[in-house]
Each structure stands twice: as structure tokens, then as C-alpha cells.
Amino acid sequence: MSLVICYAAKGGVGTTFLAAQLALGAARRGRQVTAVDLTGQDSLKLHFGLLPNQSLPDFASSSREMMAIADVNLIGASAPQQKKMLRDRAQDGAFAEDDLHVVIADIASGDRDLFDALIPYADLNLSALLPDPASLASLTQLARDVSISKMKKTAFVLNQLDDRRKLSRHTHRFVQEIFGEQLIATVRRDEAVLEALANFETLSKGAPQSVVLPDLEKLTDAVLARCSILDADVQLARSSAADNLDAVRAG
Amino acid sequence: MRSDARALLEKLDRRGFDYRQFPDRYADLELWPIFEALLADPRILERRPSQVELRSRDFDNMARSSGPSVAVPVGHPLETQFSSLLATYGAQPVEDIEALDFADPVSAPAASHRPERPDLRTFLSHLARGQ
Questions:
Q1: pLDDT digits over A29-40, tens only?
Q2: Does the global pTM surpass 0.80?
Q3: Of the CATH numbers 1.10.3720.10, 1.10.760.10, 3.40.50.300, 3.30.420.40, which one belongs to the domain with range A2-250?
Q4: Burial grade of A152 (CB within 10 A; 0-12, 13-18, 19 or more)
């Protein structure tokens, strides 16, 4: 099981959007995916086409109450006891098991304590940046004991990139220069993202021509590669599951 | 051709357009003050020491590791002769002369004959007594 944290030091940079799209992309690639909304804002579900009045099941829900959309299990866990359950699971080694399950945790920018508690058990922290000065300045808040460039579990994605704007182009170049391979993807700006949300549709359904979609595919590939979950592993797991099914049928 | 350009052209059903991608769109990069501030912040980038600082550090390490180490037994004639000189350089006389492999027990004077090591407190008490 892999744990991918989506956390940025500043809010409003598209962390929840990226967490949702990452979950959808990983599910399309055959991974078993659980996306956990830990933000308390309850907006992750909107990216799956759910309505504001629909609530997500929590960790205490029974298996019959579980909600899966586009092969992604959705969990809402913003209450303190729910966060504690996730921390306990992490400490019990739930994320150390070697299987193809990916858990994507969307953490609010203000919840640094939860981020600090989970990061030791995570494979990766995906941190979104915007090409604007406030987002860049918030980078200083992400570092703790070592500089950001030495934080091996932290990867950046530059979101809402717009090559027509000078500061956006320059920020892209700057972030490339200082973070190198830590910048694993860029996602272009497209109004279609908000329009799909307003229509309660997933982006791929509401705006199949969006320039954002190919960027998100690259992002998903880069994240899964960082988590060492390769396509070969998925194919192996699938063929082994098929063999088991055949054996059961034959028996 | 970029995927967004291709998608747009297909959407418009215009196949007669020439496509040209302009090279080096980043040529006009400038160092905005926000970039400069972040570059100087050790929380973002670990500061790399300059060549001069590296040379200086190497020299310090070398001097510390291979420099002469002088251990002078207390009461040894050398200690009486050069105590003030060694004190200047921070060398401390060894308390236990027997513990040294090279110590010569014959030439080592008895503890009662060891000269009193001058220190500031002794010096001040001598002054107070008018000696």
C-alpha cells in the first residue's frame, strides 16, 4: 500500500483538484485507489461529480456504505477522531504492506500537525504551487529541519501555468532551476476545470478536449513512478488474480 | 505539434493551418526580487559554500587532525621550563605522569615537590598577602 499526501503550505493552489485527478488517473491505470478528504472543506467529492449535499462515508462506515466512483473509493475523514484513526493505521504499518493499493490523502494547508504525523509513513508528498508570489513565498513554511531541496519525499507540481503571462513563464523556469527533478509536472491553466465543477461533472467528461488532461496524465505517471508502482507490477497482479480465478472455477 | 494546438485545430476542423512553435520562450527571464529572496533563504536551498570557504575549511580540518600534539607530564622539567609558553597555546599538562607510556619514573619527581602551577587566583592571593 502506498500513501501519497497532497499538501501545500498555502491554500487555494489546487491541491484538492490534483488529489482527485491523481486518484482518477491511478484508478484508470488499474490501481486500487482510496482518496481521503481530510481537509474539512468537503470539496474533494465535487471533482468526482458529486453534489454538495452528498456526504462521503468515513472510516467507521461499513463496507456496504462505501462509495466508489470511477473505481476510486472515497472517504471523508475531517473529524479529529477520523484523523486519529488514519494516524493509528499509519503507525500500525498499514502503509508498509507491499501491494498495489494507493491511498491519496488530501490535507488542508492549515493542518501542519496532521501532515507531520503522516509524512514518515508516506511515499510522497505532492505539493502544488501556483505561478504567483504568494504561493512561492509560502515555500518557506514547508521546510522544517532541512531545506526543501533536501526533502526527498516532497515533489512539486506547478499548477495553473499560463505561458502567455510573463511572471508565469519566469516562475516555471525559476522553479525548474531550483528544484530540478523535484518538479515532477506542470499543469496548464484552463477555465474548463471550474466549468466542469460547476456542471457537477468530472473533467474528462465535461471537457474532454481540455489541455489540462494530458498534463494530468503525465503527473499521474510521474507520481506512480516515484511510488515505485510500475505497470509491470499491476500486470503481474492482474495475471495472478486471473490464474487464481481460473483455479477456483476449475476446482 | 503541441497536444492543445492539435486538439484546437481538430475541434475547428481546420487542417490547412501551418503550425510553428516559437523557440526559447524563456529567453526574457529576469530575476524578480521574490526569486532573489527565495534563493537567499536557507529554508529553500541549502547554501553552497564558496571555493574560498571550502579551502579555508579544508585547511582548518587538516590543521586540527595532523597538527602536533604536545602532552607534557606535570613536574617534568619541560613542563617547568615551558609551562608559560604551552599555556599560551592551550596545551594542558598531563595530570597522571604514570599513565604515559614514555614517562620515566626515575626522573619523575614526587608529587610534593611539584612546583605550584601559577593561576590567576593564586596570583591574586599572593598580591593580597603583599608577597
A1: 999 999 999 999
A2: no
A3: 3.40.50.300
A4: exposed
